[in-house]
C-alpha cells in the first residue's frame, strides 16, 4: 500500500478501541438486530442470514452461506451481496463497543470469486475510534476460517442515537419496532456508554 491518506485513515489523535465491559463473551452468538434486516434477519427469505459471534478484543466473527438468490454471474456471488455481508459483520462491531453506528463509508476489494454454496468466513475488527468515528476492517475467507481471503473491506462507521432511526425510518416499521419493549430497551441501553 502507498500510505495514502483517505477518509478511512484514522487521524493521529484517534485512540485504540476499548471493548465494553458488557460486551458479549467471545464465541457468544449475536442474534439479529432486526427481524427484517436483509443482512441478518430471519424474516427475509432471500436475505443473507449472516450469523455473527463476538470475537476477542473488539472483533466479530461471522458466517454467510451464498445461496442461489445471491448470484451475480452464473454460479457466483454478486459483489454487492458480498459487500452486504462485510457491512453486516462490521455493523455488529457496535455490540463490542456498545454503541449504535451506521456505515458512513465502505471500501471493498474483491480478490477471489465466491461460488454459490460456499461459506464466507468473516472477521471484522475495530482499529481506531475518534469521537463518533469508528474505523474498522473486515475480511471474508473461503474454504474455512483460515482459507484464502476472497473479500476485504475498510470502513468508517459513525455513531448515532436511536433517534437516527426514529426520525429517518418509514413510520409503519418504526411504530411496529417501538411497540416491542425489548427492542427499545436494548437500543436505549446502547446510548449510555460509560
Ligand atoms: C439498531 C442497530 C442498527 C445497526 C444497523 C447495522 C446495519 C449494517 C450497517 C448499515 O448498513 S447502516 C445503513 C447504511 N448507512 C446509512 O444509512 C448512513 C446514512 N448517512 C447518514 O445518516 C449520515 O450521513 C451519518 C449519520 C453517517 C453522518 O451524519 P451526521 O450528521 O450524524 O454526522 P456529520 O456529518 O456531522 O459527521 C460526523 C463526522 O463523521 C464524518 N463523516 C460522516 N459521514 C462520512 C462519510 N460518509 N465518509 C467519511 N466521513 C464521514 C464527518 O466528516 C464528521 O467528521 P469530523 O467529526 O471529523 O468533522
TrEMBL record:
* Membrane-topology annotation of the record: Peripheral membrane protein
Task: Please give the InterPro entries that the UniProt record associates with this protein.
Answer: HotDog_dom_sf, THEM4/THEM5_acyl-CoA_thioest, Thioestr_dom
- Sorted alphabetically, which Pfam families does this protein's record hold? 4HBT
Principal location listed in the UniProt entry: membrane
Q: Where in the numbering of this chain does the Thioesterase domain appear?
A: 75-143
Name the enzyme's class.
hydrolase
Question: Reaction(s) catalyzed by this protein?
Answer: hexadecanoyl-CoA + H2O = hexadecanoate + CoA + H(+); octanoyl-CoA + H2O = octanoate + CoA + H(+); dodecanoyl-CoA + H2O = dodecanoate + CoA + H(+); (9Z)-octadecenoyl-CoA + H2O = (9Z)-octadecenoate + CoA + H(+)
Q: Where is this region: Disordered?
A: 1-25
The entry's localization annotation reads:
Cell projection, Ruffle membrane; Cytoplasm; Membrane
EC number of the protein: 3.1.2.2
Give one GO term, molecular function aspect: hydrolase activity
| Keywords in alphabetical order | Apoptosis, Cell membrane, Cell projection, Cytoplasm, Fatty acid metabolism, Hydrolase, Lipid metabolism, Membrane, Transit peptide
Q: Report the PANTHER family cross-referenced here.
A: ACYL-COENZYME A THIOESTERASE THEM4
What family, per the record?
A: Belongs to the THEM4/THEM5 thioesterase family.
Question: Could you tell me what this protein is called?
Answer: Acyl-coenzyme A thioesterase THEM4
Amino acid at each position: 500500500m502507498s500510505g495514502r491518506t483517505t477518509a478511512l485513515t484514522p487521524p493521529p489523535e484517534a485512540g485504540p478501541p476499548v471493548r465494553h465491559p458488557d460486551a458479549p463473551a467471545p464465541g457468544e452468538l449475536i442474534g439479529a438486530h432486526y427481524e427484517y434486516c436483509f443482512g441478518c434477519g430471519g424474516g427475509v427469505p432471500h436475505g443473507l442470514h449472516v450469523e455473527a459471534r463476538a470475537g476477542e478484543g473488539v472483533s466479530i466473527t461471522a458466517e454467510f452461506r451464498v445461496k442461489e438468490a445471491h448470484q451475480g454471474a452464473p454460479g457466483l456471488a454478486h459483489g454487492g451481496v458480498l459487500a452486504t455481508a462485510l457491512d453486516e459483520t462490521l455493523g455488529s462491531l457496535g455490540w463490542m463497543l456498545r454503541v449504535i453506528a451506521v456505515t458512513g463509508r465502505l471500501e471493498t476489494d474483491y480478490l477471489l470469486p465466491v461460488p454459490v454454496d460456499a461459506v464466507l468466513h468473516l472477521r471484522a475488527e475495530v482499529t481506531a475510534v475518534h469521537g463518533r468515528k469508528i474505523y474498522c476492517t473486515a475480511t471474508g475467507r473461503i474454504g474455512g476460517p483460515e482459507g484464502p481471503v476472497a473479500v476485504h473491506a475498510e470502513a468508517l462507521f459513525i455513531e448515532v442515537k436511536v433517534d437516527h432511526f426514529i426520525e429517518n425510518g418509514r413510520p409503519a416499521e418504526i411504530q411496529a419496532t417501538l411497540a416491542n419493549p425489548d427492542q427499545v430497551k436494548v437500543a436505549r441501553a446502547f446510548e449510555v456508554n460509560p
